[in-house]
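Fig. S4 source data, part A: sequence.
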Amino acid sequence: MWLLRLTGDPNRVVRHGAKWSTGKAFEFSYDSLKFPSCAACNRGYSTLEGNAKDVVERICRYEAVEPAGYVTLLDWLDKVRIGLWLGHKYLQGNPSAPTFTIDSRIGTKDRMVAVYVFHGHAPGLNTFGVETPLFQHQPSVFALRVNTILFLNASWDWMCASRCAYPFPRSRTLDLDVGAVVAGDYRCSSRIVHPIMSGLHKPTVLLFQPILQGDMDALRELVSRECLQRCLDQSWPERPAVGPLFRQYSHETVRTSASSPPVAFDVVRECEARSLVDVATQTYQCQIDSLGDAAISSADPQVVRNYNASKKALIAYNRLVISKYRSIPPKNFRQLWGR
């Protein structure tokens, strides 16, 4: 509700994607976008919501925010992203049972946030990417527009670990029979590799946060003591697996600790600026990138063929969405998303 009030009338009627089985649009008031939740979750997330509200409002005022505030923002974006994934499953009639919960995905995989500023747009709240079948298959990337700010958020296994000098597996195989990724041959670089993620339109803030995955005792057997100690020697002692923030600039990437100065907006020159439609389409391309290139295995070759065909269809759908967005004149795009 705080987010709805920040961005306009909570009772405004908007479109929430379409039902895949019929093609009919979901249209109802924002404050009706409610889904079943247990009392424990509602109570448990109230503190996170309060803390995130302060951070989001400060960013919307273009203020510098302490590194710890951005960690709170990343936790909240994990919650919102997975909550929207569960919510759209509910809207679609739960086409497939969820395999994990919000609790199991907050701060458990590498993550990033890019902050973009758009002037000349009416107040409003929009999401990009949550309506696609690819997001239902793997809820790793979405974007959230809050008035003149757009947050691009991504999180998946070892997304930035290798370039942040964190342990990462050189070999990864998706075992379709067990429904899990089998990883091996762990390595750990001794230096940060710039850029951590290339190809993004320049934002005002771009932060990455690697997360140590797996049991600590197992990691001690897989990587050097120096690497693991360097990863654990950081600013969030109550959350040892959660790494420091790495801020990517145009010319370098720097490690940021809790004691570092507040994160201020970087300058985006006119020649570097992009439209809202450009950044929105970037979200759908990042979803494609999140699928990765892990090997696929199954005892049944037909299962592998079916998976590859499904993956190809998911990518084709996203590419179609990208082409549709790019065909919208900028003026009409502002009218469409400035509600």
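Fig. S4 source data, part B ends here. Residues 301-326 form the longest helix (26 residues).
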